[in-house]
Design a protein that fits this description.
Largest sheet: 7 strands, mixed
Protein name: Phosphoribosylpyrophosphate synthetase
Number of domains: 1
Shape: globular
Structural class: alpha/beta
Strand order of the largest sheet: 1-5-6-7-2-3-4
Radius of gyration: 13 Å
Distance between the termini: 14 Å
Strand content: 35-45%
Helix content: 10-25%
Length: 106
């Protein structure tokens, strides 16, 4: 189950997740979610436990979503995306999982 929060800045959201033990960094690359440890995860190898939204005050392009992610192997980390992140040629299943969670929790 995802918990959603709205914060004034992305850094506040990241700090909140760090305090909850989400101490790794995740990035999207090609068809995978990549951890800064070098681990790679497909869409069915992680769960989204927290979602934080940052909405730009003057420019909608400043919007970002911060995800608290836990892999099936127990690695907990943070993924930060902006709308432009979804224009990269990634796995549709990963995009779908992220967008469904984001949409369901707004």
């Amino acid at each position: 189950m995802s918990i959603t929060y709205h914060y004034a800045t992305v850094s506040i959201a990241i700090n909140e997740l760090r305090e909850k033990g989400f101490d790794k960094d995740f990035n999207l690359k090609d068809n995978l979610l990549i951890c800064n440890l070098g681990n790679q995860y497909d869409h069915d190898e992680f769960e989204i436990s927290d979602i934080y939204f940052y909405e730009g005050e003057s420019d909608p392009a400043d919007e970002a979503t911060v995800y608290g992610i836990e892999s099936t192997s127990g690695i907990k980390g943070v993924l930060v995306t902006g709308d432009e992140s979804f224009s990269d040629p990634m796995s549709n299943k990963i995009i779908e999982k992220l967008l469904v969670h984001r949409k369901n929790n707004q």
